[in-house]
Amino acid sequence: MDRRTFLKTAGAGALAASGLATPAISQRAAARTLRFVPQADLANFDPIWNTQYVVRNGAALVWDMLYGVDDQLQPQRQMVEAEEVSADGLTWTFRLRPGLKFHDGEPVLAKDVVASLARWEARDNMGLMIKAIENELVAIDDRTFRWVLKKPFSKLLVALGKVGTPSCFIMPARIAATDPFKSISDYVGSGPMRLVRDEWVPGARAVFEKFTDYVPRQEPATASAALQNGEVDWWETPIADLVPVLRKNRNVMVDIADPLGNIGSFRMNHLHPPFNDVHARRAIMMALSQEDYMRAAIGDDILWKPLPGFFTPGTPLYTEDGGDILKGPRKLDAAKRLLRESGYSGQPVTCLVAQDLPIIKAHGEVTADLLKRLGMNVDFNAIDWGTTAARRAQKSPPGQGGWQMFHTWHAGAVCIDPSSYTAIRANGDKAWFGWPDIPRVETEINAWYEARNLDEEKAAIRRLNKAACEEVVYAPTGFFLAYQAWRRNVSGIVKGPLPFFWGVSKTA
Length: 508
Known about the structure:
The chain is α+β, with helices and mostly antiparallel strands.
């Protein structure tokens, strides 16, 4: 790792960031300061325009949400005091909690919520589904807004509370008026922390301070995951090689960050050769060894398992239907034949590989070797994660700023069903980076939304998994858990899909 961002937050202090090769594990930090090492640099800060987890995690400090999720990932009221839905399921009326206030002292009003929902709808897959059946979304008074639909949408609260990106954060109306396809430049929210704008150096340093007027709900927070140690207090994703060292330090705690884990992703661009042809995509699925990826990136065998599909193991909708292509001995010769059938003839394959995220760096090295063994001409772009995030949004051809593949991972909490699983969508220009256009997949996603019971949901997901494997929305590289570490004088850290900070405290 070349750098880290240190976020420092505290129950009564500030949250700051600074770069370092690896965090020290014994140096003491100020008692009223919590220094946090996130998974990647905070290079930009718009949780609607950007889908990076590090942006979402930071945004959860600054912007509040209408709903959160509990430890079963079910939506629970957050900014909302109460909601009512009409008998026909078409009219939803929401009332905000009293006393909500933005960091600039202005009250949070229903008009702010309406503007924020409109911006979110334009970028989120579930938001787009709601927008397509929306009759009106209006503020009734300062604390009440109404959403009228053309047809029922039973998963509306799931959409508002989901942890998948982009999450539905509430901003002042003046900020929410920003074009959803352009990044905001004003960072006022109503969450428990306030961004200290003058001290933010994108990609190197971020500083947050406690917002004293924040009034949390009375229920205890249930989601938090991260890492703390040494010169810093909490380290979200410690380098695997350092975990044994951390375990030997009596002042440091190490545990699994999130029992729902993560799904590794080999993401291909469906717009340009060779991966616009399903034969080339299937060649990758047939040749890649998930064991190679997991051993290189994760190491510890107890932390990973093969994944012949796209949904989180151990959850109700998990299935391996259609996943045989990922099982058993790897078929390199057969994969080479498929690649020839795709029309591939030696053109460079541009691989975007972030070097500042150890998991992705290790994935990229395995991929470079794999593609070369398949006879492909590898254009290996060793860049940082912030640059990857900017490059992957470009649809231009490779060689003109575009790309053919990049690596990432998807939180298992997001991959339990299609509701917030952006990466499984295959609706062309509206899909996530790579822009797959696979009607079979979309048909089964719609079938899941229309399912009347769990059995129908399971049947739809089995068909969806099969279609996604055969058409290759993306190539899963395995399922893995990750450690988090923190100093013993920090309390309140719990397992969960993202690092929320409320409930965390620190003693001298």
